[in-house]
């Protein structure tokens, strides 16, 4: 199926400076948000603490729920879980008591006094110690760095080093913007979100490799043409495939985001942002970096038009 006509000649590289300016603004906005919030909003998996999921038969106000916990000296963060009107809430406490059952009983008694015994149900109680959370955070960061280093080595072998730099810059760009959006929207970063970030790295890389592969083919065929012309042609030739792949993937992720429920909401949201940004970076970040490096460090023995 061709949704882009063969022979399309969109001058993507002419727009690269504007695109990079947009990327820079998004990254800076994310960094500023992270600084203002004192870092990412880590979930229980990374920050440690206790998470309690409560479902009420009828929705109640968040303030009323917070007050009831405050009266029992169990003050913590409270947020809705799932769709509006469901009456399900997450209670996040800083305590990491090993007696999870005892804590659950305390919360149960507290809520029963305020709202009645048959009006709610404690669906789950999870506890993660601060040391475990710190260790998970460290290993998660190491996993992302290891993936980027592995990609740098792989693409250096398969293509050239400047292509590898372009791919890694594009992937780092995707991860930074996704984390920045999470900070701007005050969403929690948990283990499922980390899994989504690694998935984004894989997805975006696949898109970039397709474009790079076509660039390499065209470079061999058009040995005297300018880099910009070769890259523009390559992107246009793969554009139909790129759009089809991204749109079909986005349809699935959008359905998961809208209908998947609260458990995978943040996971699907991260993928939604990552796929959009990853498709964009394959065109407007990875390829321009290759042009920049070629202009600064020309390939020896290769003469191309300016």
Describe the structure.
The protein folds into 2 domains: 13-42 and 132-296, Multidrug efflux transporter AcrB transmembrane domain (Multidrug efflux transporter AcrB transmembrane fold), CATH 1.20.1640; 49-128, Alpha-Beta Plaits, CATH 3.30.70. The protein has 10 helices and 4 strands. The protein has helices at 16-36, 44-47, 62-71, 100-115, 130-158, 161-184, 191-221, 227-259, 265-284, 286-296; strands at 49-56, 77-80, 88-93, 120-128. Strands 2-3-1-4 form a 4-stranded antiparallel beta sheet. A hairpin with a 7-residue loop joins strand 2 and strand 3. The longest helix is centred in the last third of the chain and has 33 residues, at 227-259. It is elongated and about 80 Å long.
Structural class: alpha+beta
**Strand fraction band?**
5-15%
- The backbone outline, from C-alpha atoms, is elongated
CATH fold type of the largest domain:
Multidrug efflux transporter AcrB transmembrane fold
Give the biggest sheet.
Answer: 4 strands, antiparallel
Give the CATH level 1 class of the largest domain: Mainly Alpha
| Number of helical stretches of at least 4 residues | 10
Write down how many β-strands occur, each being a DSSP E stretch of 2 or more residues.
Answer: 4
CATH superfamily of the largest domain: Multidrug efflux transporter AcrB transmembrane domain
Considering DSSP H and I runs of 4 or more, what fraction of the residues is helical?
55-70%
For the largest beta sheet, what order do the strands appear in spatially?
2-3-1-4
**Regions with little confidence, pLDDT below 50 for 5+ residues:** none
Query: Mean of the pLDDT scores?
Result: 83
Order of secondary-structure elements:
HHEHEEHEHHHHHH
What is the name of the CATH architecture of the largest domain?
Up-down Bundle
- Please indicate the count of domains: 2
């Amino acid at each position: 199926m061709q949704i882009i006509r063969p022979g399309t000649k969109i001058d993507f590289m002419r727009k690269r400076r504007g695109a990079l300016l947009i990327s820079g603004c998004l990254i800076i906005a994310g960094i500023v948000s992270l600084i203002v919030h004192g870092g990412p909003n880590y979930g229980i998996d990374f920050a440690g603490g206790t998470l309690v999921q409560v479902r009420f038969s009828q929705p109640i106000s968040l303030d009323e729920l917070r007050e009831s916990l405050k009266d029992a000296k169990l003050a913590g963060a409270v947020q809705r879980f799932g769709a509006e009107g469901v009456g399900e809430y997450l209670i996040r406490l800083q305590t990491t008591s090993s007696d999870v059952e005892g804590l659950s009983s305390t919360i149960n008694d507290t809520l029963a006094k305020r709202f009645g015994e048959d009006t709610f149900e404690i669906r789950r109680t999870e506890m993660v110690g601060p040391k475990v959370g710190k260790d998970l955070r460290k290993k998660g960061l190491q996993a992302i760095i290891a993936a980027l280093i592995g990609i740098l080595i792989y693409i250096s072998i398969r293509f050239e080093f400047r292509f590898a730099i372009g791919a890694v810059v594009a992937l780092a760009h995707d991860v930074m913007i996704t984390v920045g959006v999470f900070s701007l929207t005050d969403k929690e970063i948990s283990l499922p979100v980390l899994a989504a970030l690694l998935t984004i790295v894989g997805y975006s890389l696949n898109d970039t490799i397709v474009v790079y592969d076509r660039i390499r083919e065209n470079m061999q065929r058009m040995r005297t043409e300018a880099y910009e012309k070769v890259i523009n042609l390559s992107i246009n030739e793969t554009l139909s495939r790129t759009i089809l792949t991204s749109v079909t993937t986005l349809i699935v992720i959008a359905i998961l985001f809208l209908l998947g429920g609260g458990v995978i909401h943040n996971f699907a949201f991260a993928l939604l942002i990552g796929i959009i940004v990853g498709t964009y970076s394959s065109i407007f970040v990875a390829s321009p970096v290759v042009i920049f490096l070629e202009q600064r460090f020309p390939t020896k023995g290769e003469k191309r038009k300016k």
